[in-house]
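Entry 12.
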Amino acid sequence: MTDRRLTPDPALITEKTTAQIATPVCDLRRSPAGPRDRQLLFGEIVTVLNTTDGWTYVQADKDGYCGFVQTTAISAADAATHRVSAPATHVYAEPNIKSPDQTSLSFGSLLCVTATTGNFAETSAGFVPLTHLAPQGTYASDPAAVAALFLGTPYLWGGNSRWGIDCSGLVQAALLACGIPCPADSDIQSAICNPAVGPYQRNDLIFWKGHVAIVSDPDTILHANGHSMSVAYEPLTAAINRIAAQGEGSVTAHRRF
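Predicted 3D structure (tokens):
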């Protein structure tokens, strides 16, 4: 059986055109106006497969996920030169912190920088502080440190941004920022990881049914969770006991990329 998340519906394919996300964040939906499966960020590349009645069926370049986005959320693709490496950034009308801020972008958003003025990068969206950007092709080395950038971010089912993120979205953001390919949902993440041998160590992944956490140190995990409704640290043993007491089962897998 094919996985609808990763396999485009052949009955819906009428074209294959490269485009990009043109809004700070947009929902990738299971059906037009249907439930959110994931989210896509500004500048992320998609393949347009079909457009009907204001909804566009796409497949995301970063992880192969398929779904529907509002047609107004996409535009012609630019060649991204940089990504947002700060938890979030503002986009200004001019290269001046006192100029009007036009929008905000989350960690991981992609931009095509066409020029620099002082401490600002000029992009199609406006001016972005250079200190909040990293060149495409440069990567972080510590997924747990990347995940910590999201501390305090509100929990959001299917979320992928600084405005709201869930457990698997946090893991994906952390690993992609380190140049490690990563799917978007915890069941697929668990399936492609290597079984871990020995004690828990930093950057291991711990899975429960429907949940994943990153190991910060042998006694502590970092995860987006519905208990605190945020991205937070939690003692490992306490988390294992709490999740079991809630009737959500025991740890199902200990994995290592």
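Annotation: The mean pLDDT is 97. The chain has three domains: 10-76, 82-135, 143-256.
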